[in-house]
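Task 17 of the worksheet. Students: predict the tertiary structure of the chain below and write it out as C-alpha cells. Keep your answer in the requested format; marks are given for formatting as well as content.
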Amino acid sequence: MHKHEKPRSEILEELGEVTGEGGAFVTTYHPSRHEEGWLLESVRAFFEEAWIVDVLGRVRGGKEASVYRCAAHPRTALALLAAKVYRPHMFRSLRNDAMYREGREVLAEDGKIVKKNDDRVMRALGKKTAYGLQVAHTSWLVHEFRTMRYLYDAGGALPRPIAATSNAILMEYVGDAQRAAPTLNEVSLGPREGAELLDVVLDTVRLLLRQGLVHGDLSASNILYWQREVAIIDFPQVATIERNRSARRILECDLQRVCAYFASQGVERDAEALAEDLWTQYARHVPEPLVADEAIW
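Model answer:
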C-alpha cells in the first residue's frame, strides 16, 4: 500500500473536516441504482486513504469501466482526480481477452505474482469459478496499473497513476471542472500539430516496447487531448512481446488505427513500415520484469 505522508489519525481528522463530522462518504454525484453499490465500494478505499473527498460526476462511460471526476483531498495539492472504476464481471463484455492475457503472469491485488503451483487459484481460474473470475479481473487491473506506473516514471504521455484497489484506478484528471479532456477522435488538428502529437504517441509506444509490451487497444478514442498535449489511456489489454504469439499482430493493429486517425488530419505515416521497424528493434529484447515478485503499492 502507499505509505501515508502523515500519521493516519491526522489524515482522518483532516478528512472529517472536509466531509463533515464522522467522515461519512456522501457523494455529490448520484449514481443510478445498478451502479451505486459497486461504485461506492470500489472508490471507498480512496476516500478512507485520504486521496479523494467526493465523487463529482461521471465523465466517461464504457462497457468495461466508467471514469468519474473526483474532488481530491487537500493533502494531494490537487483539485481533481479521475477514478476509473471497472464494472462487475457480469457487466463486462471484453472479447478475445485470452489473446491479450497470453504469456502474462497472474497478479494478486498486492501486485505479487501468483505462483503456478498455487493449486487453489489455478484450479479456480481453469474452472472459471466466481473466485477464479475475480482473480482474473484483479490481475487484469493490476497489470494496467503497474504498466501506467512504469510508463509515467519513464516519461510517457499518460495521466499520472495515483493509487489502485482491486476494482478501480485513481489517476491524474485531465481537463477542468467544466469539461473532461476529449479524446482525439473528437477533435481536429492541423497537420503541423498532428505531426508533433503523433511523434509523442510513437515515443510512448517505444517506451512500452522497450519493456517488452504492446498497448493492445491504442486508437484515437484512447488518447486524450488537452491544451495541445496528448495523454494515452486504457492499458488493461497490454500484451507481452516475448510470450504472446499475437503480439506482432496486436502492435500492427495499434499502429494502423493510430495512423488512420492522423492521416485524416493530414499526417501520413506508413503503419506497416512503422510496425516492421519497431518489431525489428524490440522483438528480441528480453525485458527485466516491471516489478519483482513483491508488493507494488
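Marker's comment: The domain at 184-282 is CATH 1.10.510.10 (Transferase(Phosphotransferase); domain 1). The beta strands are 52-60, 65-72, 80-86, 161-164, 168-172, 213-214, 223-226, 229-232, 239-240.
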